[in-house]
Amino acid sequence: MTDSPKILLAITGGIAAYKSAVLARLLIKAGCQVRVMMTAAACEFITPLTLQALTGHQVHIELLDAEAERGMGHIELAKWADMILVAPASANTLAKLANGLADNLVTTVCLASTAPIWFAPAMNQAMYANAATQDNLAKLKRFGYHIIMPDSGEQACGDVGVGRLPEPEELCQQVLAFVARQRLVQHLANKTVVITAGATLEPIDPVRYLSNHSTGKMGYALAQACRDAGAKVVLISGKRVALPTPYGVERFNVGTADEMLAACMDACKAADVFIATAAVADFKMANIANHKIKKTHNQDTMTLELIKNPDILATIAKTYPRLLTLGFAAETQDTENYAKAKLITKNLDMIAVNDVSDKSIGFGSDDNAMTVFFAERYDEPLVQLPKAAKATIAAQLVACLAKIMPKKAVN
Ligand code: C5P
User: Fold this and answer.
1) How far lies 74's CA from each of 2, 44, 123, in Å?
2) 278 CB near ligand 1 (under 6 Å)
3) Per-residue pLDDT reduced to its tens digit, 364-378
4) Tell me: the pLDDT tens digits for 25-68?
5) pTM for this structure?
6) For the chain, N or C: smaller number of CB within 10 Å?
7) 310 CA distance to ligand 1 middle (Å)
8) Is the four-CA dihedral 13, 16, 18, 19 of positive or negative sign?
9) Is 31 left (phi over 0), alpha (psi -120 to 50) or beta?
10) To test the ligand 1 pocket, which listed residue (312, 323, 335, 343) has its Cβ within 8 A of the most ligand atoms?
11) Do residues 349 and 405 make contact, with C-beta atoms less than 8 angstroms apart?
């Protein structure tokens, strides 16, 4: 991303298009270079001349425009952008892109661009709630597009509900925050990141095992965020994780903590960053029974002899001190002290702690809230990440890692 971020603002047909004029102005004032492309329907709501006057540049409308093809045609436009923001994004444009259609300039440029693409859906509340629109949004998210949630409230048509385009100031702040994060995460581009995720399974006998409730959501969200930052990602996952492997991520399934350690030791030989989100069983069976353990009639209790598992994170941090390491701590009390102690004893660069006594975050939930501590040598203040979707928390953690990455090399 260049010093002055290049934002390609795509306006599609909806009454909220008038807000895009203010947005273009705010982005320019904030130091962005802004170019505008519009669909034919958008031109019914706001004139291209308005946007041309505000940005000082010709507005792009036609897909097949002999003039434009000699100047800035659709491929050049797609390559020019550091980021594309489709605001407002109509149900029609969302549906087209969810299905890979490219029948106008906006959809063609979106398909032809490798830049991050953000959609700000805005439409009548019933259109927004429609199963087809929701399905298209879910599909677009899966494809790696970013969605800005619409606001709720009174709509131009008189309805009340979800579907309003957020105010231009809010959209502008989101774009600027994203641009800042993108700049930071460039430190992770082309780095190799190894991530552990999910629960380990420790066999008791051929049919039973010891495990825990970890679903792997945080680790998988981090894998996706690191991939978005341009890193090569190797995911060492508990084999019972039921999540799809994020696109472009190499995944290895493992069972026990010992298997997870062996896979990590191997993958970390060529890595730059190690992130341990896995919930590793602290203990394993001293001896795994060869046959199913049978209950006997006069037996009311049973004792299993357990021995300690290796600490994967501490072992990796010790074996490969050049790796930037991020550990996690799930605590129910005195979170700060426990996290800081782990940071030191496991010799980590960063630790993220969450309070799992709050059931709305942590294991299995889609949200999380964390506090991040850095090793003392970085002289960085703690970072509070308020409750948000795990994908958002993951992107913020990646930004934290990227921030200390350049300092790691000299430590
Ligand atoms: O010591 P504790 O289990 O609380 O530490 C949690 C952190 O250490 C997490 O990042 C977890 O993935 C990692 N860990 C590990 N191997 C273990 C236990 C924990 O990598 N055996």
Assistant:
1) 20, 22, 26
2) yes
3) 778 889 999 999 999
4) 999 999 999 999 999 999 999 999 999 999 999 999 998 876 66
5) 0.71
6) C
7) 9
8) negative
9) left
10) 312
11) no
